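Anyone? Bumping this.
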Amino acid sequence: MNELINYALRLGLLCGLSGGLLSWVHFKTAPIQAAREAEERERAKQEVYPLPHGGRFEPGPLSDMECWSAFDEAEQLVGWVFEAQGNGYSSTLRIMVGMDRNGTLAGAKVLSQKETPGLGARIEEVASDWFTGRTLDALFLSHVGGNIDTITGATVTSEAALKAVRETGEKIMDSVKERMGS
Amino acid sequence: MNAGEFTKGIVRENPVFVLALGLCPALAVTNSVQNAAGMGLAASFVLLCSNLFISLIKGFIPSRIRIPCYIVVIASFVVLVELYLGAYQPALDKSLGLFVPLIVVNCVILGRAEAFASRKGIASSIWDALGMGLGFTLALVATAVVREVLGNGTLWNRAILSNMRPALIMILPPGALLSLGLLMAAFNWIRERGTS
């Protein structure tokens, strides 16, 4: 019995020390990590929807997803930036997309993905070409009547990326139309 | 004597090629030299800290609960590395991702704690950790050089084989088994010829 208490105390002391040290380090590093992530996001927004000096992003129009409204220097709403998420072949694709008020895409950047290297992972290289300048209703692969070439060997990834951007973009357009209609 | 503690981890008792420990990261993150070096350094750091600390407190740890104690020590240093990468090395953090927390169960580290640091003095444990860490890192980098050059046509993200199509299989899981197996065979062939 005494032996057991002895063991528990020693292990407990070790765990306590470890917990204390780690919470202190976490306390120190968490703000740095959060600031870095926020800055990265800000840079990605500017990359997919370049705004002139004086323009700014504001959260909205939807509150249940990552999206922002883009305003130019004259405080005019010019478009939106949103994060589309889709299930790829082996990971969740997160794509940041900029879109103007007519539904034409201004730019796109893959934020994170863990698809097969050399196949689905090539979505990172093609995303900008695929989306920039196209409208939402043109986001279809060539084998279903669109004019976007599938990434060779990565049909699932290609379809998932297009579907995610198309549906998320439409969701934003719908919500905006609804608001204007009412 | 210390020189022997240091060098044995590099060739004679190389953790990956000879002891066949820590094969999970050796297979998983060797698809690029940068990842392999990052993983090697992260694991070496944890190994050094845990060897040092366990050797320091070996009198305090009752032998019957030594494994949970080792795991607590190792896990603490791993989380330290994870927090550091998250805050200061975002690119490495992104590509190593899941494999950093898995250093906790890297058998090289637990193995050295059990077989070495819990029995030897602090100085020897540090040398042992440095040698084993270096051996582990070198083995990972060697595997990654083969895989990245053949599978992606690059070395440390710089294109070197521009006039041929890379063999994709080498950066996929089968390529990991192929290159690690062949390197291990070659390493041991040379090692045994050297000793006989």
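Late reply, but here is one note on the structure posted above: The interface with chain B takes residues 6-7, 10-11, 14-15, 18, 21-22, 25-26, 29-30, 32-33, 36, 40, 112, 114, 116-119 of chain A (CB under 8 Å).
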